[in-house]
Design a protein that fits this description.
Layout (H helix, E strand, L loop, with lengths): L4 E5 L6 H15 L5 E5 L5 H7 L5 E5 L16 H7 L3 E4 L2 H7 L3 H13 L3 E6 L3 H5 L3 H13 L4 H6 L1 E4 L13 H19 L1 H6 L1 E5 L7 H5 L6 E4 L6 H8 L4
Parallel strand pairs: 1-2, 1-8, 2-3, 3-4, 4-5, 5-6, 6-7, 7-8
Helix pairs in contact: 1-2, 1-12, 5-7, 7-9
Bound molecules: 1,3-dihydroxyacetonephosphate.
Length: 250
Amino acid sequence: MRTPIIAGNWKMNKTPKEARELIDALKPLVKAAKATVVVCVPAVDIAEAAKAVRGSNIKVGAQNVHFKASGAYTGELSADMIKAAGASYVIIGHSERRQYFGETDETVNQRVLAAVENGLIPIICVGENKAQREANYTDALVEYQTLIALTGLTPAQVKKVVIAYEPVWAIGTGLTATDEQANETIGVIRKAIARKYGKGVANAVRIQYGGSMKPANVKGLMAQPEIDGGLIGGASLKAEDFAQIVNYEA
Ligand code: 13P
């Protein structure tokens, strides 16, 4: 019912030239993918990546967006600029942005609104850290993060967003949530959306898992009924690895 979505988050890796090389290598490997395929590249790579994906089934995403349309915000990029450069998706509220750059649930919400108003599809990241999981706060936390992030969107807009459940303790650590843990927490997120926006909306929203997803564990995770895709960091930087994840059914 929901089309799976596999997105690479390149983080702070690859120059424009390297971006083209990676996308050129990726194109033939993922051309038969059933999933939506997205590469979220550094901002300076967006224009080159947009050219490189032309005529293919790969979409380009950014890794952040500012919430204002324009103005005195040195170093920031508006949704309008990101769209014009050739991106159609944007990651918002990644835990690294929250942890190192002071982003809050409220600014995440403002960024989501700016993205949606400008026709970008947000990939909204939520997830608990190790201490929060151990204290049993995971469910309450991801519900809160999700509902705050969506505040102000219409139900029709909520249907189109992508949410990435990324337990912070699983990012870049080699530790993955078990298939069941990931499925359970994504189920919690979907139920929270259902309570606020109705089952029809909740059943349409695509919710990814992220955190050390790789060729070796993608099948088990994707076999879970609540998991609609992945947000992949490290393993998205090599064409063969990312393609194996994209083609997880093959
Ligand atoms: P890794 O796949 O490197 O753990 O990163 C996950 C992530 O943060 C994707 O946004």
